[in-house]
Write a structure and sequence with these properties.
Blueprint (H helix, E strand, L loop, with lengths): L4 E10 L6 E10 L2 E2 L4 E4 H9 L10 E3 L5 E8 L3 E5 L6 E4 H7 L1 E5 L13 E14 L12 E14 L6 E8 L12 E7 L4 E10 L1 E2 L5 E4 L6 H7 L4 E2 L7 E3 L7 H5 L5 E4 L2 E4 L1 E4 H15 L5
Parallel strand pairs: 12-14
Antiparallel strand pairs: 1-2, 1-9, 2-3, 2-6, 4-5, 4-7, 7-8, 10-11, 10-13, 11-12, 13-14, 15-16, 16-21, 17-21, 18-20, 19-20
């Protein structure tokens, strides 16, 4: 998929040679076509809100390009930056000083069809506790690839991989089937790509966690989520004495998949349920997932 690019022409006017305020105006274009509804906001204002933990409580000061692709941003501080955002395109953050130096900026179109992640992304994995998962009004990249877009905020109970300084993280996530499946579970391992312009959650990649009687975390053996990687890496699940009974409802029609999906000795079949008897240690889950990400997402975590 070829990358389309915005051409953004900026005119930066200083109120005076010694002024600490700037007037920035210009046009946003895609080739020769002027683009409307490009969202533009001050990076300093966003950072201030995040620092004060007021996300969702205070509206960020934003403007949009008009039908002719024109925008005008007044009274910006000399050390400020602007962020340009439009669905299906990569965000661009640029400082006022760079406006003055460059005058012409290009934005790259977001390729929504690829699973290959930017090699500069920093993957983190953590045991998370849900604070909120809310739908976004706008869906970028089109319903042909993603049916729903959500913004999730989680408390980081324990960081398992990567670097992250806060105990709370907010990230965007897409899901084909509506509300992300991971949000329906109390304790999960989540995988998030840290990016300069916002974090992106790998929504289909998560691991459900349960505690044993000694308060250690384990993820039950799963035909869907961890069998193939466990087989490839020769990692064996262990017998777990779960604190609470972990059971999965069996299929009644047809019953044949039950043998495949809930094999012995990993599960004990009792009436209409499969009861988990084996699980993987958290450290083994992380090893398996990192191996998977290298193959599928083409990243080196």
């Amino acid at each position: 998929m070829s990358k389309l690019k915005f051409l953004i022409c900026f005119i930066v006017i200083s109120n005076s040679a010694f002024s600490q305020k700037q007037l920035v105006e210009g046009f946003v274009k895609d080739g020769d076509q002027f683009l409307s509804d490009v969202k533009i906001y001050s990076a300093n204002q966003v950072n201030k809100i995040i620092t004060r933990k007021q996300i969702g409580k205070k509206q960020i000061n934003t403007i949009k390009t008009d039908k002719n692709g024109y925008f005008k941003f007044e009274k910006l501080k000399i050390n400020d930056s602007l962020i340009f955002s439009l669905c299906n395109y990569k965000n661009l953050k640029i400082s006022i000083n760079d406006f003055i130096k460059e005058k012409t900026i290009q934005l790259e179109k977001e390729d929504c069809t690829t699973k290959k992640a930017d090699s500069n992304y920093n993957l983190i994995a953590f045991i998370g506790k849900k604070i909120s998962v809310k739908p976004l009004i706008k869906n970028c990249c089109g319903a042909i690839y993603f049916s729903s877009s959500y913004i999730a905020t989680y408390k980081i109970e324990k960081l398992l991989h990567g670097n992250f300084t806060s105990d709370t993280i907010t990230f965007q996530v897409y899901d084909h089937n509506g509300t992300p499946e991971f949000s329906r579970h109390k304790n999960v391992i989540l995988y998030v790509m840290k990016r300069e312009f916002g974090n992106f959650g790998l929504g289909s990649q998560f691991d459900i966690l349960y505690k044993d009687t000694k308060n250690n975390w384990f993820s039950p053996y799963s035909y869907f989520y961890n069998k193939s990687e466990a087989d490839e890496m020769k990692i064996e699940p262990v017998t777990v004495n779960f604190k609470n009974k972990i059971k999965f409802k069996l299929s009644e029609n047809p019953p044949e998949p039950n043998i495949k999906f809930f094999p012995e000795p990993y599960f004990k079949i009792k009436k209409k349920y499969a009861i988990a008897k084996y699980g993987f240690k958290v450290e083994d889950i992380i090893l398996m997932k990192l191996n998977y990400f290298k193959k599928v997402y083409k990243i080196n975590p």
